[in-house]
């Protein structure tokens, strides 16, 4: 399966990123590119629980394809969310359900950020996405 | 100046963690274990495990003897008058739940339970749920600006309807010792039973439960360099007599018929099922090890490292320390920086500290915070550990700012 353009860019950037400092800088840059959420989208229903930070995931389907928006009050987590969205944006439910997102973050060298421990929200966001993909 | 820990080499995991470039500063969550404990576990499992208080055979007798010797050691550690005042549970949380269920019969609707605003969930939720079951009033004692229970207000709030006072000895978030003598004396005078959550306090200094004058004292083995899965409930003899049996099964029973049963008194009557035998024996070995250390040197080491930690935090711009920590730990937030971001970058640099609400959500909310970073010290930490933490903190902040 071919990668979306932005995902390919991300992969190139992170593959070259050596060391924790550069990875962190890249994460912050990608986080800054996230489309901001309206205050009206920061609802309880859109909140992803199970994170120590505030995380929102807005999901809608347009003609069968998923459109996601996401944000967090934590900066590095915004970067992780941005990297997630470039991979899943515009997929159909079957494609989303069949996607190995752990593998995606492993390719980026960020697999440790998927730890199920609660200090990081990414794990919970992936669970929410998997639920969405299987329900519709 | 470098301040080494003379006990560091007694904890093999510290060197192992260091080889993985990890600096462990999360001992208030759980501690690394001394070699003496590893040896005791290996000896027990390597020489014949057996269930306790049941079997007539030799392995059973040996296990029971070792298990009961640990009870004596815990009693000695706390200066309890009698080993029968020591109940082994599966953790501090289960000890506090035992109390909340075992004392339930003493409450009538409208009675009060007093806890403080800084309680760990383990010493809040069992009482909160008891209050909901029995239509009681849960009274929350407020804190002063330093992070200690406000005595003036507490003495007003603890009154003749207070049936139980349950408070922490040392806060797991603020690192403050609580004014127990005045609180306990006042509660006792009002006819209330007193419960002290010693989960953090027991790790720092020696505490004498008779001198403390509490009815119950609870701690957990794994925070005191022992194995997890073991908690300790000390009770004054008259207080233990008021406890109703809670969990049923195993050797807690005296006589069982199909339709009825009678139960043993403390301690065995409150140790339903097979207890964590190896863990209890391991805790005994840990206490032997701790008792062999120079208590004064230990206290001096911990105090000096704690001062170093506070100084370093205060020296940095924008750092806000929560409360006025007196021992063991410090929690902080940094102006304009999300604690999850700092935690992320500390983790990237191999610094193991805790970020979040520290199992005290209402306290953090009172302080107007979503979370905080907590650095906590064990007797194996040295000044290099703190130096590495501060360097990582500076690097992380530089990046984020």
Could you give a quick summary of the protein structure above?
Chain B: Keywords: Pyridoxal phosphate, Transferase. The complex is a heterodimer of chains A (136) and B (401). Chain A is mostly helical and 136 residues long.
Describe this structure in words.
The complex is a heterodimer of chains A (136) and B (401). Chain A is mainly α. Chain A has a single domain (5-134), classed as Sufe protein. Chain: A (Alpha-Beta Complex), CATH 3.90.1010. Chain A has six helices and two strands, in the order ααββαααα. Chain A has a two-stranded antiparallel ribbon with strand order 1-2. The mean pLDDT of chain A is 88. With 401 residues, chain B is of the alpha/beta class. Chain B has two domains: 6-24 and 293-398, Aspartate Aminotransferase, domain 1 (Alpha-Beta Complex); 36-289, Type I PLP-dependent aspartate aminotransferase-like (Major domain) (Aspartate Aminotransferase, domain 2). The radius of gyration of chain B is 22 Å and the shape is globular. The two termini of chain B are 30 Å apart. Chain A binds chain B through residues 20-21, 23-25, 28, 52-54, 73-77, 118-120, and chain B through 338, 340-341, 343-345, 347-349, 355-357, 370-371, 395, 399-400.
How do the helices and strands line up, and which of them pair or pack?
The complex is a heterodimer of chains A (136) and B (401).
Chain A: H1 5-16, H2 19-32, E1 55-62, E2 65-72, H3 75-88, H4 93-98, H5 101-107, H6 122-135
Antiparallel strand pairs in A: 1-2
Chain B: H1 12-19, E1 23-24, H2 35-47, H3 58-78, E2 86-89, H4 92-102, E3 112-116, H5 125-134, E4 137-141, H6 151-157, E5 162-168, H7 180-189, E6 193-197, H8 209-212, E7 216-220, E8 231-235, H9 237-240, E9 253-256, E10 261-263, H10 277-291, H11 295-314, E11 319-321, E12 329-334, H12 339-348, E13 351-352, E14 354-356, H13 361-366, E15 372-376, H14 383-400
Parallel strand pairs in B: 1-13, 3-4, 3-5, 5-6, 6-7
Antiparallel strand pairs in B: 2-8, 7-8, 9-10, 11-12, 12-15, 14-15
Helix pairs in contact in B: 2-10, 3-10, 12-14
């Amino acid at each position: 399966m071919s990668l979306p353009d932005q995902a390919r860019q991300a992969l190139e950037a992170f593959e070259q990123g050596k060391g924790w400092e550069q990875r962190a800088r890249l994460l912050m840059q990608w986080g800054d590119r996230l489309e901001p959420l309206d205050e009206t989208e920061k609802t309880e229903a859109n909140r992803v629980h199970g994170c120590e930070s505030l995380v929102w995931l807005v999901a809608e389907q347009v003609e069968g394809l998923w459109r996601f928006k996401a944000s967090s009050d934590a900066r590095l987590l915004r970067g992780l969310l941005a990297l997630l969205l470039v991979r899943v944006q515009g997929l159909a439910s079957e494609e989303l359900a069949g996607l190995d997102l752990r593998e995606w973050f492993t390719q980026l060298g960020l697999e440790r950020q998927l730890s199920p421990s609660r200090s990081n929200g990414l794990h919970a966001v992936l669970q929410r996405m998997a639920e969405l993909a299987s329900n519709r | 100046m470098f301040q080494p820990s003379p006990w560091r080499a007694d904890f093999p995991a510290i060197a192992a963690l260091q080889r993985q470039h990890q600096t462990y500063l999360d001992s208030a969550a759980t501690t690394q274990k001394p070699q003496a404990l590893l040896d005791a576990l290996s000896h027990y499992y390597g020489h014949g495990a057996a269930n306790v208080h049941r079997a007539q055979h030799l392995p059973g007798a040996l296990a029971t003897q070792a298990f009961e010797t640990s009870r004596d050691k815990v009693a000695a550690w706390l200066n309890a008058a009698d080993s029968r005042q020591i109940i082994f549970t599966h953790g501090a949380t289960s000890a506090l739940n035992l109390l909340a269920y075992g004392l339930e019969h003493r409450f009538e609707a409208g009675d009060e339970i007093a806890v403080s605003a800084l309680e760990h969930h383990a010493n809040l939720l069992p009482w909160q749920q008891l209050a909901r079951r029995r239509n009681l009033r849960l009274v929350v004692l407020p804190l002063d600006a330093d992070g200690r229970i406000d005595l003036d207000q507490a003495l007003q709030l603890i009154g003749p309807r207070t049936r139980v006072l349950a408070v922490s000895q040392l806060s797991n978030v603020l690192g403050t010792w609580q004014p127990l003598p005045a609180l306990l004396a006042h509660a006792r005078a009002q006819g209330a039973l007193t419960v002290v959550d010693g989960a953090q306090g027991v790790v720092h200094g020696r505490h004498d439960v008779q001198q403390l004058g509490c009815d119950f004292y609870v701690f957990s083995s794994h925070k005191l360099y022992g194995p997890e899965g073991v908690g300790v409930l000390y009770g004054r003899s008259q207080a233990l007599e008021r406890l109703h049996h809670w969990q049923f099964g195993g050797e807690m029973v005296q006589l069982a018929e199909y339709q009825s049963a009678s139960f043993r008194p403390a301690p065995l009557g409150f140790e339903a099922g097979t207890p964590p035998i190896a863990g209890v024996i391991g805790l005994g070995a840990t206490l032997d090890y701790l008792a062999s250390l120079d208590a004064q040197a230990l206290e001096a080491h911990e105090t000096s490292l704690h001062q170093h930690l506070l100084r370093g935090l205060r020296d940095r711009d924008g750092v806000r320390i929560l409360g006025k920590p007196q021992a063991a730990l410090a929690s902080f937030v940094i102006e304009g920086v999300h604690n999850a971001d700092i935690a992320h970058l500390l983790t990237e640099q191999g610094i193991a500290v805790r970020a979040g609400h520290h199992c005290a959500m209402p306290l953090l909310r009172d302080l107007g915070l979503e979370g905080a970073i907590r650095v906590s010290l064990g007797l194996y930490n040295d000044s290099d550990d703190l130096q590495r933490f501060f360097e990582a903190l500076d690097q992380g902040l530089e990046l984020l700012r």
